[in-house]
Amino acid sequence: MTLRVGFAGTPAFAQQALQAILDAGFNVVVALTQPDRPSGRGMQLTPSPVKQLASSHGIPVEQPVSLRNDEAQALVRGYNLDVLVVVAYGLILPQAVLDMPRYGCLNIHASILPRWRGAAPIHRAIEAGDQETGVCIMQMDAGLDTGGVVDEARLSIQATDTTALLHDRLAALGAERIVAVLQQLAAGATLTAVPQAEVGVTYAHKLEKQESLLDLQAAAHALDRKIRAYNPFPGAVLHSGEQPIKIWGARVVRGAGEPGQVLSSDDTGVVVACGEGALCLEVLQTPGGKRLRAADFLRGHPLPVGTLLT
């Protein structure tokens, strides 16, 4: 069976899934993506990664600002879709749109549902200290990530994983699994959507910029997870006096003192006391500067023993 596949997505995570679907030979008849946004120092309107890929393959691209109005819904209906794959699209799909494709709408979600429903499942899994995560292919319904699961795959979260690293592994895994599910559909199989458990539901709320501030009263292990979870966005921040410093790399070490006090400062890193244990800050950055290893950072921004970071 030849499927008429629609694709709805916006960032690089979604772009990888679209590329895999195209590589597998599926007939993608339309790509829905967010309107172009200002980006870069010149704040020029920039197409999303999904739009760039779709355009390079000659796939029609539609960029409605909402799918709640009759005009946008008529636009989608006109493509006569068998299935709509939705990956980090960024717009709510009303029931009218969910009902349009013959086989419904399939979403790639970067967690093992029902844990971490919502906008930031990768960040929140690392921040919470989860040992594993994965991807679910979900049959979408009108709820927030509440649909039945038709396929899932798991992977371990490593002790050194940042959101950037885990994002890339999950994007590859999600791309692999959505292709497998579409191949089942194309072969005439009936997908079985397993309802999600009613226990263990957690929400991965969108990251707010103010969350980037590190509270050194917390345990070093928790702060290490937060630094990794907020890399590459929004970055974890400490202050030396009025000077903000972004922390991009750290490790938990032994040490004790007043939380925020610099215990040692040399080429191997800046060791700062926490509410429990200590952190060795290894990669640091000032506003407008480059990310630097501690040895290079300290040459221009000394943080002597006894300095109090907040």
Sheet with the most strands: spatial strand order? 5-2-1-6-7-9-10
Number of helices: 8
Shape: elongated
The strand count comes to: 17
**Major sheet: size, sense and barrel closure?**
7 strands, mixed
Strand content: 25-35%
Mean pLDDT: 96
Provide the CATH topology of the largest domain. Answer: Rossmann fold
Number of domains: 2
- Percentage of residues assigned to helices: 25-40%
* Through-space gap between termini: 61 Å
Give the C-alpha Rg. Answer: 22 Å
> Which class of secondary structure composition applies to the elements?
alpha/beta
- The CATH superfamily of the largest domain bears the name Formyl transferase, N-terminal domain
Description:
Helix content is 26%, strand content 28%. With 310 residues, it is α/β, with parallel strands linked by helices. The protein folds into 2 domains: 4-204, Formyl transferase, N-terminal domain (Rossmann fold); 211-300, Methionyl-tRNA Fmet Formyltransferase, Chain A, domain 2 (Roll). The longest helix is centred in the middle third of the chain and has 24 residues, at 163-186. The model has no long low-confidence stretch (mean pLDDT 96).
